[in-house]
Structures are given as structure tokens and as C-alpha cells.
Amino acid sequence: MERDRSPFVLACIEFARSPMAVLGALTLFVFVVLALIGHWIAPQNPYDLRALDIMDAQQPPGSSSMDGMRFLLGTDTLGRDLYSAILYGLRISLTVGVVSTAVALLIGAMLGLLAGWAGGWVEALIMRIADLQLALPAILVALILISLAGPGLGNVILALILVQWAVYARTVRSVVLIERRKDYVTAAVGLGLPRVRVVIYHVLPNCLAPLIVVGTVAVGGAITLEATLSFLGIGLPATQPSLGLLIANGFGYLMSGAYWISLFPGFTLLAIIVAINLVGDRLRDVLNPRLRR
Amino acid sequence: MPCRSAGPGPCSPSPSEPRVLLYVVRRLGQSVLLLLAMSMIVFLAVYAIGDPVELLVSPQATQAEIAATRAAFGLDQPLTTQYGLFLANALHGDLGRSFIFHEPALALVVSRMGATLELALSALLIATTLGIALGLIAALHSDGWIGRAIMSGSILGLSLPTFWVGILMLLCFSLWLGWFPAIGRGRTGDVFGIASSLFTLDGLRHIVLPASTLALGNTALTIRLTRSGAVEVLQSEFVKYARARGLAPRRILMVHVLRAVLIPLITIVGIEFGGLIAFSVVTETIFAWPGMGKLIIDSIYVLDRPVIVAYLMVIVFLFVVINLVVDLLYRLLDPRIGAN
């Protein structure tokens, strides 16, 4: 019955052979669900000032509030329940990471297709710009953009797109260069199909596997970079408290012993990134048999 | 181009002097172009966002006073003239004065460069020595638990966010164990007129935590590159021959394997050095290290534009120089690169 199964099912079975990757996928699933339903299951709305009581400030994990609420992970300096704040921050961090990666993937893939298919000066221009971008480390590109355009949600997402698109463009172009010489493409073009149709329906699907692999790991990178920028105070504004911002808020209180304000958001961030990398690593093995060792 | 074949042959003569010179000149030209492009981007971005006059005059100024200020600073000239002036001043080392420190911006950035460079260099040293040593060990014991442990550790090292590692290091080794001081650069010592924390015991104690934090990602990368290179070389004919000839395993590893592994590593190390300088922004913020990185973050907070411009130009300049040096060094070490 083996051959009746679709490639997708086969890939899933292959994926499940690695217990670590399955653990990563499960962790990721839990975090995504928490991010989606976080606003309903959080014990309090951490950004509703009426819900906060300054008397509850800097309570250690497990303590109770003045009106009997449990602070599972403690509170920050404003008396905010950290567990609730992390649930809210999770949604922001994941959204920024996924949205920026998706947009960058779309733009990068389009430019890669264009470069690989058109060739000539178009290809040279796109790939030289991609080279230039890849020669600079991501943090520097983000720093240049933010220091010129200023912090804020829009600029952070723009920065994350800017540091990512070149990787996708390169990936897609390399696949297109291989595919366009193959017989089925020649046949399709020879049949008189419109070029755009050949590229979108026949060449692009071949790019999906490497794009999924690169994109998965890139989401982790994007979340890390956003957290780094927010930690530095040049990322998201205080009204969009991502995990990085929560860590930054607690950083000043490490010295005074309130370690939990930074540590718990930090461990959440860490768990997400490690989970994404475990999944990404396994996907690389499953989707690209040539790389399997 | 008459010949595109790589490797020795009648078609590709040994790299002759004019060819290398041509290459150097071409690379220099590219570098200058890149710097020019960067200066244009910075100039346009800074002058497209907000009117500098608003920062220079008091809110109660009359139209005539605003116009006078505009004329005094040449802001009424066309954009191309302004850019020419900016470029001419930049070439004289004048990138404006800091709004906050009231010092020339470029001098300010350069004065902080030493602290950043010593941090990046220390991190590079740690990453390279530790990375190569652990990578070789992992290659020798690639099936044993040591090798696996090192490789798993390196994956973790690559995925950990730098700022998070820094916070944990600060918490563990400084606040809880009290082994190292938490913030600042400590006392600097003077050797040949260069002030550095590396020359005093107090300074060295201060640099351990930030440098290790900064080095972590690169150590992991160096481990992986060294291991994959060494595993390949260990299976090659010349290593088998060296073994058969009865050379001591230690000598084979330290002389023959290491040499083959080092060449690709140099490029990576060079490129990574630029990354370290950029990434020191994070480490410097955590450990309050008084370098360029902390300066740019502080300047972004207070919108100190001349300092931002100076920092960006300096760091791009550093990058261009590093890339150039690495490229030339690589050609020198591996003559095969020059064949094409």
C-alpha cells in the first residue's frame, strides 16, 4: 500500500521517525495554540491598568495577589501577572516572526523566479543586490534601517523582511536554473503555454521543498532578531510588548533579585526557538534526501 | 574571456603580477563604490526624514530667522549640492557635531571604537581557539558520545539568542557566583599608547563575560566547520598515507589535518569578525561596555543624527576593509582561487 500514500503522508511518517523533532513539533503546536487562545485563558488582561494593583508588584512566582489571584510566574514591577503577559507577548512575537517571514518569502521567491527565468541584466541586478545584503550580518542591516527610519512595529517588520528576502531569492533562483533546462519545461514552452503559467504552475512547485526548509528556520531567526531589537529598546513600542520587550523590562531588576521578570519570558523565547530549529532540521533531512547523512 | 578553466593547464598561467594587481584595483574600486552608495543612502535617509532646521532653531523663531539659519547651513541649496558638501566634509573627517556631546561625531565614534574592537578581537580569539579544538575533538570521536555532545552543544549555541545568553551569564557568574564584575570596562592599561582593558588584570576580569557571550555563536559555527572539514580530510589519501608511514597521530592532526582545515576557516573567521563588531551592540548594552555599539543605541534613543551617520559610515567602512583583506588573504593562501 506504500505507493498509494501521498508524498505528504510519506513525509509525515518520515518526519515522525525522529523523537526530538516530534517533541519540537508538539512544543511548537502548544505555543501556537497558547498564542491563539491566550487572550481568553490569561488570568488577567496585563495591559488593562484597572486590573493591575501596584501592591502586587514584584511578587515571586507562586504568590497570591491582594484579592486572592495566584501569580503562577510572579509579577513585574507594575504588579502585572507575568503568565498573562507572556501569553500576550507570545502572540505578538509569533505574529511578527511569521508575518515578516511570509512576506519576505513571497517577495524573495518572486524575485528569485524572475532572476532565474529572465537571466541577463535582470538576474545580475537582483543577485548582486542579494549578495550585498547577505554580505552584511542581519543585525547590522536591521540596525541601519532602524537607526535611519526609527523604531516601531512597521519598521521592525520591514527590517525583518529586508534581512530575509535574499535567502529565498537565492534558493528559488538556484532551483529555477536547474529546472528550466529539463525536458518537461521545454515541452511546456514548446506546447505554447504562456511563460508565466509555466513558471508559476510547473517550476514554482519544485521550489517549495527548499523554501519550506529555509522558511521554517528563518521564522526562528526572525523571532530572535525581533526580540533582540526589542530588548535593545529599538524594536517594538511599549504598546506591543513582545517577549523581547518583557525580558528588557525585567533586565533592570535582575540586580535587585527579581530574576523571574526576565527569566520566564526568556525561557519561553528559548523554547520556541529551539523547537523551531528541531523541526527545521528534521524537515531539511526529510525534504532533501541528498543532504541526509 | 579567453579562458575560464580552473586549475593548472596551458590555458591558465601561474598568477602573474599584473593580474593580481588588476584584481586588487578592481576590488578597491568596488569598495569605494560601496562606500559611496552607503553615503548616499545615509544622506538621503537622514535628510528625507524631518527637517534639520527644526532641530537648530528655537520654536519661537520667525520666518526670517528660519530662512537665515537655512541659508547659514546651506540647507537652501539643491539636494545634489548639499550631498556634494556632505561628501566633501566627510572626506575631511567632518560628519557634523553630536547634538548631545557637542563633540565632532566622527571623533566620538572613533574614540569608542577601541573598546568595541578589543571586545570583538577577544571574542574572535575565544571562538577560534575553542571552536577549532572542540571541532577537532568532535571529528576524532565522531561516533562517540563526546563528539555527539559537542555537536548537540553547537546546535544549541547557534540557536540561542545572544542577548539571552548574556543575561544568563550575568545572572550566573556575576550575581550568583560573584566570579566576574557585571558591568563596565574596568581599568585600562596603556601599551604603546593604546589603551585597552586587555592590559590590566581588572580589565581582563571585566572582559571575560562579554567576550564569551559574544563568542558563543561563532564558537558553535567554528566547531561545525572544523568538524566537517576535518572528517573529510581524515578520510583522504594523504592522511591514510601519513598513518601508514607511521607518523604520530598527534603530528598528523596538528600539522596535516589542521592546515587543510584552516584555509576555508580563514574566510569565515574574517567575515565573522565583521559580524562580531555588529553584534557587539547587544553585548555592550547588556554589560554596559562603553563601545561604539552602546553609543549607537543611546544615539538612536535621543535621535542624535550626526552620531548615527558617523557610526553607520564607520561600520560600513570597517566591513569593506575586512572583506577586502579577507579576499586578498584568501587568494594568497589558496592559489587555486586566482586561476579564474
Can you describe what's shown?
- In chain A, strand 1 and strand 2 form a beta hairpin.
- Chain A contains ten helices and two strands.
- The mean pLDDT of chain A is 82.
- Chain A has a two-stranded antiparallel ribbon.
- Chain A has one domain (2-47, 72-291): Orthogonal Bundle (MetI-like fold), CATH 1.10.3720.
- Chain A is mainly alpha-helical.
- The radius of gyration of chain A is 23 Å and the shape is elongated.
- The two termini of chain A are 27 Å apart.
- Chain B has 340 residues and is mostly helical.
- Helix content of chain B is 73%, strand content 2%.
- Chain B has twelve helices and two strands.
- In chain B, strand 1 (189-191) and strand 2 (194-196) form a beta hairpin.
- The longest helix of chain B has 39 residues, at 249-287.
- Chain B is globular and about 90 Å long.
- In chain B, 33% of the residues are buried.
- The chains are: A mainly alpha (293), B mainly alpha (340).
- Chain A binds chain B through residues 132, 135-137, 139-140, 143-144, 146-151, 220, 224, 227-228, 231-234, 244, 247, 251, 254-255, 259, 262-263, 266, 269-270, 273-274, 277, 281, and chain B through 34, 41-42, 45-46, 49, 155-156, 158-164, 167-168, 170-171, 175, 182, 271, 274-275, 278-279, 281-282, 285-286, 296-297, 299-301, 308, 311-312, 315, 319, 323.
Strand-helix topology:
The complex is a heterodimer of chains A (293) and B (340).
Chain A: H1 7-15, H2 19-41, E1 63-64, E2 70-71, H3 82-118, H4 120-135, H5 138-149, H6 153-179, H7 183-190, H8 195-232, H9 243-251, H10 260-287
Antiparallel strand pairs in A: 1-2
Helix pairs in contact in A: 2-3, 2-10, 3-4, 3-6, 3-8, 3-9, 3-10, 4-6, 5-6, 6-8, 8-9, 8-10, 9-10
Chain B: H1 17-48, H2 52-56, H3 63-72, H4 79-91, H5 105-140, H6 145-159, H7 162-176, E1 189-191, E2 194-196, H8 201-234, H9 237-244, H10 249-287, H11 292-302, H12 305-333
